[in-house]
Write a structure and sequence with these properties.
Keywords: Transcription, Transcription regulation. 33% of the residues lie in helices and 24% in strands. By secondary structure, the chain is of the alpha/beta class. The strands form 4 sheets. The chain has a 7-stranded parallel sheet with strand order 5-4-3-8-11-13-14, with helices on both faces. A 3-stranded antiparallel sheet has the order 9-10-12.
Length: 242
Amino acid sequence: MTDLAEELGVSEMTIRRDLDRLESDGEIAKVHGGAVRTDPEQSARGLEPPSSTKAEREPGAKRAIAAAALSLVEDGMTLAIGAGTTTLELARLLRGRDVTVITNSVSIFHLLTDPSADEVVSSGVQLTGGQRTPSDALVGPIANAALERFRTDRAFVGTHGIDPLAGFTTPNLGEAETNRKLLGTARSCVVIADHTKYGEIGAHLYAGFGRVDHLVTDDGLSEGRRAELTRVVDLVVAEGNS
């Protein structure tokens, strides 16, 4: 702070005031001894953007991914579906299907049980309960205890980050723990996420590639990255962002 004030020829109080303004505008994040510039398209490892913000990103890709993931669903299945904007698109396609759904997402629960809509999931929907996060996930001890009592055929989860070495990660510790429990209910696990998640690494690991049977993404992923992922997971690429 002192060095910056001397370099610019202003007081430290002026520097602090300007940094406060830049932080409030979302341009920087203050850290010990100074500040770092924030990227509006990518969140820091310790931060999780709200679901309303994430819903605005890559909507066509998310719909295409959900349509491709639907091929992994058979009537009569019991599904665990994690919170997220891509999993919400999958849930839209499950209305009217003969499946049972376990979820830790309030939005997915409302979507699949809304009596004012024409179709609901015929076999029932269970909501875990728990503490709500900015990404609309219910997490924590209540959610985890509920999930320990379920057994499902297939789990679908989204992710904050995909990295061939780091695995699947999230900035939220509670969400990571609950995602592990959710995946633990299932005989088969699927991650559904758009191409922008590639190369992102959140602070908390919830699954390595050995735990995931399928990764469904969109055709915005480069050929080189597809080749890297194909070596560690069964990759399904949804062609055509609708």
